[in-house]
Amino acid sequence: MTHEDEQPQLSHVGPSGEARMVDVSQKDVTDRQATASAVVRMKPAVLDALVSGELPKGDALATARVAGVLAAKRTSEWIPMCHPLPLSWVRVDFSRVGPDEMSIRCTAKTAARTGVEMEALTGAAAAALTLYDMAKAADKGIVIGPIQLEHKTGGKSGSYRRASAGNADASSS
After folding, report:
1. 3-state secondary structure of 141
2. 3-state DSSP call for residue 42?
3. pLDDT (0 to 100) of residue 9
4. Helix pair 60-73, 44-52: axis angle to 10 deg
5. CA dist 65 to 38, 40, 98, Å?
6. Domain annotation for the chain: domains and CATH numbers
7. b/e string for 18-51 if b means 16 or more Cβ within 10 A?
8. Positive or negative, the Cα torsion across 157, 91, 37, 64?
9. The whole model's pTM is what?
10. Angle at Cα 119 formed by Cα 23 and Cα 75, nearest 5°?
11. Is 126:43 a contact under the CB 8 Å cutoff?
12. Spatial separation of the C-alpha atoms in residues 131 and 5, rounded to whole Å
């Protein structure tokens, strides 16, 4: 069997194929950080209203920021095999990257035995969904995505950074 033919070992699948929570009790507690992003696209006029706080439902960015932080804190309640983590910090930021596009970045930090990627992804997703909810009356065609991990540090697997559009592979150490 060549290296390319090897199947990756899935940590959340038991020997009989059953879903399982990974036992992290023997892993060291290390500082961990992850940042995820999400993109939300909508009509330019609706995004103008969202950014200026003029949507009928109020300040969408403030509401989405709070939703992202709260969702990150409760990730283990949403993702069945996620461990509950003591988050030390969560931040949600927004930037308009085009006439019809808003970028969301959620960063989460912890000192724990397992990574914080799911918390960052969940925070970004919840913020994006909240923007949809706040603006859907003005634009039913809002599109969310991609939602993706941008980078992470800490733990046994080391660091990861998503490759820029010009690079084929992401870096890791």
Report:
1. coil
2. coil
3. 62
4. 80
5. 13, 14, 20
6. 28-153 (3.30.70.640)
7. eeeeeeeeeeeeeebbbbbbbbbbbbeebbebbe
8. positive
9. 0.86
10. 75
11. no
12. 42
- Cα–Cα distances in angstroms (integers) from residue 113 to residues 12, 41, 91, 116, in the given order: 16, 36, 21, 10
pLDDT tens column, 90-133: 999 999 999 999 999 999 999 999 999 999 999 999 999 999 99
Paired tokens of 140: 């039913």
Instruction: List, in sequence order, the alpha helices (H) in 9-166.
Output: 44-52, 60-73, 75-78, 117-135
What does the block give as tokens for 33? Answer: 């950080």
Query: How many residues are present in the chain?
Result: 173
Q: Hunting for tokens 């019809």 — which residue is that?
A: 100
Tokens of 107: 């960063």
Catalytic site positions: 133
Find where tokens 């023997």 sit: 26
For the segment 74-94, what is each residue's pLDDT rounded down to a tens digit?
999 999 889 999 999 999 999
